[in-house]
User: Fold this.
Amino acid sequence: MQRAFSDFISIPEKAGIIMVIEKEFGPSAAEDWAKLTAGLANVVKCTFGTAALYDQQVLQEKIRVYRDAGLSPMVGGTLTEVAVLCTGGYSKRHLQGYLKYASSLGFTHLEFSDGTIYIPDDKRGDIIRMCIDAGFTVISEVGKKDAKKDALITTEKRIELMKQDLESGSTMVIIEARESGKGIGVMDKDGKVDFGELDVIINAVGLANTMIEAPDKSQQQTIYMRYGPEANIGNVQPRDVMSTAA
Amino acid sequence: MQRAFSDFISIPEKAGIIMVIEKEFGPSAAEDWAKLTAGLANVVKCTFGTAALYDQQVLQEKIRVYRDAGLSPMVGGTLTEVAVLCTGGYSKRHLQGYLKYASSLGFTHLEFSDGTIYIPDDKRGDIIRMCIDAGFTVISEVGKKDAKKDALITTEKRIELMKQDLESGSTMVIIEARESGKGIGVMDKDGKVDFGELDVIINAVGLANTMIEAPDKSQQQTIYMRYGPEANIGNVQPRDVMSTAA
Amino acid sequence: MQRAFSDFISIPEKAGIIMVIEKEFGPSAAEDWAKLTAGLANVVKCTFGTAALYDQQVLQEKIRVYRDAGLSPMVGGTLTEVAVLCTGGYSKRHLQGYLKYASSLGFTHLEFSDGTIYIPDDKRGDIIRMCIDAGFTVISEVGKKDAKKDALITTEKRIELMKQDLESGSTMVIIEARESGKGIGVMDKDGKVDFGELDVIINAVGLANTMIEAPDKSQQQTIYMRYGPEANIGNVQPRDVMSTAA
Assistant:
């Protein structure tokens, strides 16, 4: 691929992963967007709690489009949590059926989370390994969707869980910021990044092992400014990828 | 149609009507979106005051796309009001010409409103019946686009007009919230739903006969929480349909 | 082209130029949007600082789509500024290479600005003339992207530079409001238009020679209300064109 204006403008090579959260595209919009942002994003999270509203064929078509464009389609964590709730818990049989089905649709990546349901810490490893056995690249997430519950997790605990997930085989651990990016995880109530805490986490876990959910463009900018182009950013909106990658 | 993940996730059947307000799609974006949200939305309002800016062929193409996808294309109320103003009042002849033309474009539904123009209360029935005679399913709206004027309508008056419209043949009556969803109808200035008033209206008119304009996702959620999946929601943004329907 | 509802609704003929800033479309979304807004917008600014992230072929495809739809594709000013920085200044040779390349991609219009870099006032004319010689229609911009620096430019100075640019061959001069439209140029910190200053500028420079960046729909409305349909508006979002043109 030949980048436009490459003889006149030097863009630093993007080194980190960009994970996009995509909820709005039909198959042709997905294809058109993938064409536009070719080579910039890496992972596309395109299911969420309501993925069961998708026509199965349309979802498969989108997944194929993303794979053809070199993007990794990822099952969102909430979907898995809902599936767990609906099928009556993380029983091995139920989960394996679910994973087999998700894999048959074409998903290659899976986000593992317990943002809305309770999973004992010592069960996380089992589940992550089950997902890997089913053929998935696992990105796990530490944090609760409820800001009050999330605030109860100490930095030490967060680090401990992240390390544990990495040991269990997760390729990366996400720090939750939801889609709003405010008052949760390392984002304060105005959506500013709390680098005091983030520095400690990244120092302990490693930049390459951390994905920071930063839905807001200004958050993305400050993160790249602080950690360089190697930072991994998650929950980027499709239309922001060109700016994020800049 | 086979819903994705249906063996793993049970979604309560949607029972109420979802009316989308769509101003941004060309024909292929419309088709792509209709594919994505298949079976979730019901009515698409795709003209507004400025519909006269559409190339006629492009508009017809969009309408055909929506009909093919099982969606009912609706002429917005403001367009009819503007047409009335431009043609010099709700004269029978002018209106019939307008309705015939709108019908020839493929519209099946028509929103009847007097949000910006003055129509005597006792003329509403005549107009609604004329629209029905022209083959339209009529959804009428009670309320003014100007918040100050709208605030002058008492709850009793609102209910009276709604009942009158239903008797005249409207299939449903809309409670105005504009596109902003703030400081108008049953929405307070922060966009919170005033259930005190809404409960009284719905109690008097019936949930099935009421469509609540609720452009904001959090408004939609609180309305479904209070009235269940049978609530009818209007002015939903195209990209929010997947969440609204969840 | 036959406008819809033209027998029933009279829309005042748009007289001024609408310049759209477009960062999100792949080739088919661009085509679909151009179809929808046929004849309403005039100029599309579709590169920005990060245009070097575009696949060259995708960018060329978009430009062709716009030209086929009768829209003039414009190179954004920031891109040129970045190119200048990367190639080591506005040297004649470098700039000519850049202009030749941009022209070969199909761009017909070029925005000349010094919003982020320093260009001596007496060099502006040379550069503008060089762009014209390369075949471009030039729209130049007066103002700084940094609000503090921009505030230091007096109204007199702004007018002087605008007149100078017009004499150098710019077809029009843009008053900067960035994409946010707040606290910059003639927009106050709440995004309200400061007509006190704008009246003085337009009085001195001429309405036809001025393009006012007004990304917000309410700004566009107040500008049209004050100066009529001849006003030239810039940085309009693609999805707002139908309303802007109304």
About this structure: Chain B touches chain A at residues 1-11, 28-29, 31-40, 239, 242-243, 245-246 (CB under 8 Å).
